[in-house]
Amino acid sequence: MAGFQVMTLTEAAAERVKELVDNSDKNALGLRVGIKKGGCAGMEYTMDLVEEAQAGDDVIDDKGAKLFVDPSAVLFLLGTEMDFEVTKFRSGFVFKNPNETSACGCGESVALQAADPSVLQQ
């Protein structure tokens, strides 16, 4: 399991995370990613600037950007690719999550199932 990352970032996501950290008025180290109950599909992704790591955080350093994954979210985020996209009407992070079972029509919330940790043993 050495070297396995819970999540990966596209170049666009890594650049945006670095921008957010560099432009923060806090002494930010990176971005914390997690999940919480909410929205019409049941769960929402959360993101906050991190000033210090918390015990149990899974720390990901990808393309020069640092993510801190909340330990309670790890099984729901295994294999997820985080992207950042800009369209005519919105810009924001997009999660390509293999553990997603459905999403609401507005794209603000998702239904997730925990990943099978035995796939990490292979």
Protein traits:
9 strands; globular; 122 residues; mainly beta; four-stranded mixed β-sheet; Hypothetical Protein Aq_1857, Chain: A; single chain
Overall SS class: mainly beta
> What order do the SSEs take from the amino end to the carboxyl end, as H and E?
EHEEEEHEEEE
Strand order of the largest sheet: 3-2-5-4
In CATH terms, the superfamily is HesB-like domain
CATH class category name? Mainly Beta
Helix content: 10-25%
Rounded to an integer in angstroms, the radius of gyration calculated over CA atoms is 14 Å
Q: Tell me the β content.
A: 35-45%
Total strands: 9
CATH topology: Hypothetical Protein Aq_1857, Chain: A
Count, helices? 2
Secondary-structure map:
Layout: E1 7-9, H1 11-22, E2 30-38, E3 42-50, E4 58-62, E5 65-69, H2 74-77, E6 80-86, E7 91-96, E8 100-103, E9 110-112
Parallel strand pairs: 1-6, 2-5
Antiparallel strand pairs: 2-3, 4-5, 6-7, 8-9
